[in-house]
Amino acid sequence: MTPHPLGSLAIIGGGIIGLSIARRAAQAGWSVRVHRTGEHGASWVAAGMLAPHSEGWPGEERLLRLGLESLRLWHESGFLDELPPQVITARESLVVAVDRADVADLRTVADWLSGQG
Asked: Mind listing the pLDDT tens digit for each residue in 26-44?
């Protein structure tokens, strides 16, 4: 085995995020090993979705900024350009309210986001 100049990296989790990290690290010259269980992970829930506008809540400003920066990097890093055409990515999303409580939550988040700039 040829040694890699950057060293060895262990990735815990073989879902969408873990495999994306492993792929990028291997491209950068790391020797990568992915550790995963035989059970289903969390990728089926949201598939590594980055949706800071719909996942944030008042008081989570730092998390919103982190999510927005992650979304920016996702689109500007060239990572998407390297994926095969069979991989589908979304650029927009729709949040739906199914009852009055959801409507109230969406209004709360919309007001909060308006204040964030």
From this structure: 989 999 999 998 777 777 7
